[in-house]
Structures are given as C-alpha cells and as structure tokens.
Amino acid sequence: MDGSVGEVVVNGPSDVWIEVNGRLRAVDVRFRDSVELRQTAVRLVAACGRRIDDASPLVDARLPDGSRVNVVLPPLAVDGPLITIRRFGNAPLTFSDLVANGAIARGLIPIIEALIADRRNIVISGGTGTGKTTLLSALTGLIPPQERIVSVEDAAELAVQARHVARLESRPPNVEGRGAIDLRLLVRNALRMRPDRLVVGEVRGGEALDLLLAMNTGHDGSLATVHANGPEDALRRLETMALMGGVDVPHSAVREQVASAVHAVMHLVRDAGGKRRVETIVLVERAGAGWRIREDARCAD
C-alpha cells in the first residue's frame, strides 16, 4: 500500500476512502457485496488474534504491521460492515522531522526541550487525527537515553524513540468474557517496573486517576495524550475521567491533584488543509484549591 496513505475508511461495499496528507478522498475500490466486505473484516480481525461475530460485533485492535483497525458489524452498523484502518509510517517521525515539516514552530523548540529536560509532566491534547500519538512518539526521542520508559496503551501505536523501553498493552476479554486487563491495572503495574518516565498513549477513563496519583508521587516527566478541544478542556476532561475511577473522591480533591500533577499542556490542531501542528503550549499552576493557566506562559506559534 502507498506509504502516503494514513487512513483507510470503508463505509460499505462501494464506498471506500483514503486519507492522504490529512485529507480524505474517495477511491475507485469496490467489494462485490456486503458478504465479501464482512468476510474481509473477519479476516482482518483474525489477523489480530481476535474474533468478531454477531455476538461481538465491534472490535478495535492492532494489526501485525502495527496499524490500528476498527471494525463494526450489523446490527450496530446500520448500512453494512464498517472498517477503519489507521496506518503508521515505517519510519517514525522524529522531533526534527516535525520541526522541518512545520508541525512544531521553531520558536517552541527551546520551550519543549526545557520541559522534557526539567522532567515536567506534559499532557498532549487535540482532536481525532491531529497527530497526538506522533508528537508523543517524537517527544520520547528527547528523553535522555539512560532513562527507562514504561509505556501503557490500549492498542500499541507508539513508536517510542528510545533504547530503554518497556511496552504494555491492554487485553480485551476472551470469548467467555474473561481475562480482560484494562489500562488502570497496567498503569498501576507500570509503577512497579522502575520507570523513570511513565508514558500513557491515551487517557480515556478511570486510569486518569491512577496517572494523576503517579505524577504526584515522584514519577516526574510523565507524558500522556487526551482528546480535547483546547488546553483548559483537556484539564477538565482529566478531572471528569478521574472521577470515573470508581473511588469516592470529591471533585475539589481531584482538581488539586490536577493542579499538582500537570505542568504543561501542548495542544494540536489540524487545519482545513489537513496540516497538523502544535497550536499552543500552556503552563499550569496551582490557584487556591484548583488550577489555572498561566497567561504569561501561553506560547503560540
């Protein structure tokens, strides 16, 4: 497959799209019918060591080449099977590559390098497809080589650019509904693996509480990504997800945890032309019993 294709989207037997340079376009590729499309979806999922059928019609998994595949079957998919494949380049983009292609403004270089060198806890925020995972992977290349990185992901996507790394990936339940290992358990276990840096690929649930606790108990220099529309929204989402952790913790206490744990938020956007870039970097500080963005430290390109 063309290396420039970042995503493949199948909306039905005769409706296939690809993403090139951040833009989706339809392609002249067809399946005979929904039956052939379903068979293709089943083979894709089987290649991941997973199973999809009428009883379990939704799967999100990692293909052997590292690509991420999401499959939805009817009746959840109203008009037939849906397939979404997110591909990653053979050679991961480095920090220098992102600077060269304009994803990181040169004026932000010393700020980012200082945040990593000073072991600040950083949250990378942005919408879907803005390049959060790519930036997170690139930032690991700035970490001193002697430091041990432990990465935790739902589906392993990170191309950690370091020699001393231990990678953990969650596990879904088996066909009997047993054996699931979620991100919360992996984050807790990662803290027992002597990490110098904890990297969480994407925070999306109760593991936010465990991450905040880790950041506040000596695990400086941690990195994570979160879906959000802006830096303030990212911090609020962390609060909300931490409250989903199933622990009876008051909101005020969670806000204090966020204020103490997160030092900076890097927010990414994808413009109308498909270009992905770091829009702003903000520093976070404690304000009373909560947090606030330091307006004098808001750095835009």
Fold blueprint:
Layout: E1 5-12, E2 15-20, E3 23-27, H1 34-47, E4 58-62, E5 68-72, E6 82-86, H2 95-100, H3 109-117, E7 122-126, H4 132-140, E8 149-153, E9 165-169, H5 183-190, E10 197-200, H6 207-215, E11 223-227, H7 231-243, H8 251-261, E12 264-270, E13 276-287, E14 290-293, E15 299-300
Parallel strand pairs: 7-11, 7-12, 8-9, 8-10, 10-11
Antiparallel strand pairs: 1-2, 1-6, 2-3, 4-5, 5-6, 12-13, 13-14, 13-15
Helix pairs in contact: 5-6, 6-7, 6-8, 7-8
Describe the structure.
By secondary structure, this protein is of the alpha/beta class. The protein folds into two domains: 5-86, 2-Layer Sandwich (Beta-Lactamase), CATH 3.30.450.370; 95-300, Rossmann fold (3-Layer(aba) Sandwich), CATH 3.40.50. The chain is 26% helix and 28% strand. It contains eight helices and 15 strands. The protein has helices at 34-47, 95-100, 109-117, 132-140, 183-190, 207-215, 231-243, 251-261, and strands at residues 5-12, 15-20, 23-27, 58-62, 68-72, 82-86, 122-126, 149-153, 165-169, 197-200, 223-227, 264-270, 276-287, 290-293, 299-300. The strands form two sheets. Strands 7, 8, 9, 10, 11, 12, 13, 14 and 15 form a nine-stranded mixed beta sheet that branches. The chain has a six-stranded antiparallel beta sheet with strand order 3-2-1-6-5-4, covered by helices on one side. Strand 13 (276-287) and strand 14 form a beta hairpin. Helix 5 packs parallel to helix 6. It starts with a strand and ends with a strand. The mean pLDDT is 90.
